[in-house]
Amino acid sequence: MISKGGSEALLQTLVDSARTASPDYNILLPLLRLLVKVGQRDKEFGKKALELEALDVMLILARKNLSHNQNLIHCLWALQVFASRVTTAAMLGINGAMELLFKVITPYSRKRARIIRAATEVLAVLLKSKSNSRRAVNRGYLNGLLRLHQDWQSHDTSNDFIQIRRSLLLCLKHITNIQSGREVFLGAQGMEILFTTTQKYLGNQSMDAIISIVIQILRKCYPKCSLPLATASSYYSFSVPGNMSSGPPCTINKDDFEEDGEEEEDEDSDSEETKEEDDDLETDLKKLTSKPVLGWTEEELKQYEAMCLELSHNFQELNSKSGDGLSSEEDLGIPQCTYFCNIPTETSSKRHCQERDQSPRGLETGDTNFQDPPLKQMKIMKSTGAITYEMAPGKIGPYLLSNDQEEDSSRRESPNTQASFKEPPWGTEVCSCQNKNTFLSSSIRIDETSETMSNVLERHPMDIPFHNPYTYIVKAEGTKSVPDFKVLAFPDVWGHHSPPFSQPMLERKCGIQRAKIFEDVQRFIHPEKVMGRVVFSLDESWLLQSTDATEYLKFSSGFESGNLRKAIQVREFEYDLLINADVNCVQHQQWFYFKVSGMKAAMPYRFNVINCEKVNSQFNYGMQPTMYSVKEALQGRPHWVRVGYDICYYKNHYRQNSAAAGAPGKCHYTLTFSVTFPHNEDVCYLAYHYPYTYTALMAHLDLLETSVNRKKVYFQHQVLCQTLGGNPCPLVTITAMPESNSSDHLQQLRQRPYQVIVARVHPGESNASWVMKGTLEFLVSSDPIAGLLRESFIFKIIPMLNPDGVINGNHRCSLRGEDLNRQWLSPSAQHQPTIYHTKGLLHYLNSIGRTPVVFCDFHGHSQKKNVFFYGCSIKETLWQAGCTVDTSIISEDVGYRTLPKILDKVAPAFAINSCSFLVEKSRASTARVVVWREIGVLRSYTMESSYCGCNQGPYKGLQLGTRELEEMGATFCLGLLLLQLKSLTCSSQFMAQASALLDARKDILGHHLQRCSGKSSGSSSTDMELDDEPPCMEEIDYSTDCSSDEETDIHELDQQIQEMALVEAVGDEEEKNGIDNRSLSTSELYVSKHWTRKSRNSPQSSESTEVSSRGKI
Ligand SMILES: [Zn+2]
Questions:
Q1: Measured by CB atoms within 10 angstroms of the end CB, which terminus of the chain is less buried, N or C?
Q2: What CDD domains does UniProt report for this protein, alphabetically (predicted)?
Q3: Residues 587, 714: one domain?
């Protein structure tokens, strides 16, 4: 009917019959009802009505019938339909529609409730037009609306008129979309009024329709102010060589800005998101298929020979009698790094040479690894034997076997420690001893407190695999930080052991977000109740914390990866926290790591990190931050654990100061969580995710190196290059030792294909380091699968591409304030040395015909669940972009899908459904894309691990812990083995060996393998789930200006018309009490339906801005 011109015909009829001197309402009313029905379904209806002059006619008709309920209500319905188009609404406003409506709805009266409902609904629609909102402000309607709101809210005690109250709030919501509206609203005490009228309903779910609009208004009108910081830029600056390129890249989401545009627009933004994403896809066939010529000279490449010693070393020292004659003490001739300066830049070679320990390492056996212990406490260790390095490869145990509880626990706790757990007094003893102050209150000073450490360690021996506090302390001396950190965080030194339990994702309680926002609004309404006591601040260092103060918590973060900038006590048990921007940056606040002490046990402390930047976070979907308690650790539970409740993440009222560098007006987000500490007067550390410092990596590599069975494992730790901050970036080579130095054996070694794995280019993604830890430990382990992998491949591993970022507590950047994973197209040796030399090494391998089989870059993902890959496919990209290119003429090896398919089967946390193989323009300079296109690695991947957890597979519903992350790293290696099995180049010998090994593991691998078969059959529902977040119990509203959301259900008007018809049929024209029961229940039903539908949609829509299927890498 609409397409055949039905709307026009109806409108014309309306105009004609209404313009007669005395219109026949017996015709007009049914005509209007029909018009409303049709109009709701015709997008162009408002425009047509305007063109046919139906607007004027309708207004005149309404004015004529102000006292005739039934006629009037029909007019109102029609007006509502006309006004659904914003430009038409503006026209109605110009012609006096709002004055008319105000006459109808004021003053407060319960008589004619049906009419009032219809009128407020029209008004709400009209006010979507900004010019109407301005008119309403100018005429003082806002005060009138507030008064009406108060009247209805206070008189409607039995909640019979929710619809009217809701429409009034919608009116306020639209008016406050404009600046002057917000100002008048504030001047009229709007915040106080809405706060007090709504507070009592907070816990009442049936009042959702009201509360959520109130919350939106309150958040929007909360006066914007800049963060309580002296400057937006990082507290630390570092003078970098050369000019800072173009300054920090400001990739700011346009949603982050308040919009108060003047012009009227009809919103029709249905598919904008997807369009934008697809616009980012690379569709230039040339760019997709051509392999650029790399601009490296032969000479430049030659420097990387030194990083591939395995190809040239002759293993002279290997006894040709296949090693039988080797005593374990004998140096097996693993080339010591000290002998080689692998530093590719001529300028810095002197520095580089000294980086590795100069002391020779005669460490094959014995309790200690150091002939000449750099610190005196090493002797203590030696004498007490409390800590030993003894970690026979057999003890490491294959991670793939970690299902075996018994083996696991034996690995975790030595009998020695287990015994001491049962002695409760000693834990407190330590804390009450005289060392308490040095020990508990000031972390561990590198210089003075090592002895304390030794004493404590003596009393509380523990055995964490591949961790040794002394090694950590020694290594920390070599770590160079911009702030020159002198203190070590206790958890880093003491070590973390995965707790013996898994932690489920936090179930989100309904109404948490609104309760938190109300608490925030309360600060505005009752500023006198806000303490505002700065208890920690880098900028105001004169604010020395009194150590005796008991009325507030003490904070600090002056240690590696720490980055707290300021802490403000706002209520007795509530603190606002600000984290430091990345060094030389004005942004990237997301990662945090700090120490807190002086707490009371069992009290709920609320922490608000108020300067977060991402638009959404897994903190809204079950993720918890991590905590490490020193007292717990001393009692034998050295665990980082997920803690916190009442967690949510939302946009707050802080905006970047316009005077500040960077992006003025940029929004900030609050992460709020509450923690109940386990002990009084404890020292606890809180972090965004399980910390993993650069020093931890260096210590780990040392321990790994000394743990390996040198007869079997070729383990080479070299320096790839120096970072800008003067820290060596390690490069690790792992393969099997040749059986002998016979040319056959050497030949076999030199022909092994390469696998290149890198991680932690983004410092805030500590999960990537835990995955890498698992990879490294597995590769050197005595697991036969690891053995076969070593015999088959040479692994080149760069475990931390951005050491400086990690050390200085950055979230994303290098010391130049650059995202290093956007520098791969043309890195410079001077500015991005780690990227430059990693690329150089890859290029070198390529130039000698040894292009890696797989290149993988480990990352962490803050918005999605599971572990998954990003890869590169020409065809998938072109298909997704809807390109017209004939893809059948492009030949593409589909082998890029094999590894993710394998991992999907064998790795519990891995989900192939989350993978994407699209090549985006915005990712053109990432490792994955550059290594794929320029180096020609078909299987070039980014592996993303969720900060949160899994929504599929055996770990469904669980948060990922370090154990699961390490397991992922180990299983990744298994994936490489299986990939080789499937490859054409797979030798029959390898096949036989691998099959035998895998058969022996069948029972263990079995349940993972089963996943595959179970999955492929009828899993359409899981497919759906993986793309988006599961529905949240309450609407999570990140943006305060959601003017585009559908507020009036298309069926609501139909419903009203039907109700009216019923009323007419009964002949009850008089409405004494407004709405009768029958219609009330139906209308309520509609409200609730409406809201459930919304709550299902909103997480998706709000997420879609950041969580594209590709996400950020
Ligand atoms: Zn990343």
A1: N
A2: M14_Nna1 (cd06906)
A3: no
Residue 199 within a domain: yes
Cα of 862 vs centre of ligand 1, distance in Å, is 9
Enter the tokens of residue 469.
């506090």
Instruction: Tell me, in angstroms, the distance from the centre of ligand 1 to residue 1040's CA.
Output: 29
Q: 744 is written with which tokens? A: 């056959």
d(CA 615, CA 617): 7
The confidence band for 427, taking pLDDT boundaries of 50, 70 and 90, is: very low
**Cα 696 to ligand 1 centre (Å):** 20
- Say how many Å lie between the first and final Cα of the chain, rounded: 50
6 confidence band (pLDDT: 50, 70, 90): confident
Both tokens of 515, joined, read: 């309760």
Residues 677 and 727 in one domain: no
pLDDT tens for each residue of 39-53: 888 888 888 888 888
Query: Is residue 838 domain-resident?
Result: yes
Per-residue pLDDT, 890? 79
Tell me which residue range forms the domain holding 618. 503-656+665-687
**Strand 728-736 relative to strand 794-798: parallel, antiparallel, unpaired?**
antiparallel
Instruction: Answer yes or no: do 91 and 153 share one domain.
Output: yes
- Alpha-carbon separation of residue 931 from 393, 514, 851 (angstroms): 34, 46, 10
- Residue 426 CA: distances (Å) to CA of 380, 430, 431, 436, 634: 20, 6, 9, 13, 9
In a domain, 1018, yes or no: no
For residue 1054, give the H/E element and its range: helix 1050-1066
Q: Residue 372 phi/psi, 5° resolution?
A: -130, 85
On whether both 835 and 732 belong to a single domain, the answer is yes
**Whole-angstrom Cα distance, residue 1005 to residue 567?**
48
What average pLDDT does this structure show over 473-496? 93
List, in order, residues 6 or more apart from 351 with CB less than 8 Å away: 343, 722, 726
- 293 pLDDT band (50/70/90 cuts)? confident
Q: Are the C-beta atoms of residues 964 and 871 closer than 8 Å to each other?
A: no
Spell 876-903 as b/e; 16+ CB within 10 A means b: bbbebbebeeebeeeeeeeebbbbbbbb
Give the model's pLDDT for residue 1004: 55
Length of the chain as a residue count: 1113
Mean pLDDT of 118-135: 94
Task: Print the SS3 string covering 713-776.
Answer: EEEEEEEEEECCCCCEEEEEEEEECCCCCCHHHHHHHHCCCEEEEEECCCCCCHHHHHHHHHHH
Q: 245 CA distance to ligand 1 centroid (A)?
A: 21
Distance 856 CA to ligand 1 centre (A): 12
Q: What's the mean pLDDT in 992-1007? A: 72
Q: Choose between 133 and 1096: higher pLDDT.
A: 133
pLDDT tens per residue, range 825-874: 999 999 999 999 999 999 999 999 999 999 999 999 998 999 999 999 98
d(CA 373, CA 719): 22
Count of domains observed in the chain: 3
How many degrees, rounded to 5, is the angle at CA 800 between CA 798 and CA 805?
A: 150
Two structure tokens written together for 1098? 């909103």
Please give the Cα distance from 928 to 922 (Å, whole number). 12
Residues 640 and 963: their CA atoms lie apart, in Å, by 11
Question: pLDDT per residue over 455-470, tens digit each?
Answer: 777 777 777 889 999 9
682 shares its domain with 739: no
944 assigned to active site? yes
- The CA 762 to ligand 1 mean position distance, Å, reads 5
The answer to whether residues 652 and 699 belong to one domain is no
CA distance 656 to 611: 10
> What are the tokens at 604?
């709920």
Helix spans in 609-725 (H): 630-634, 694-707
896 Cα–ligand 1 center, Å: 21
Task: Give distance in angstroms: CA of 860 to centre of ligand 1.
Answer: 5
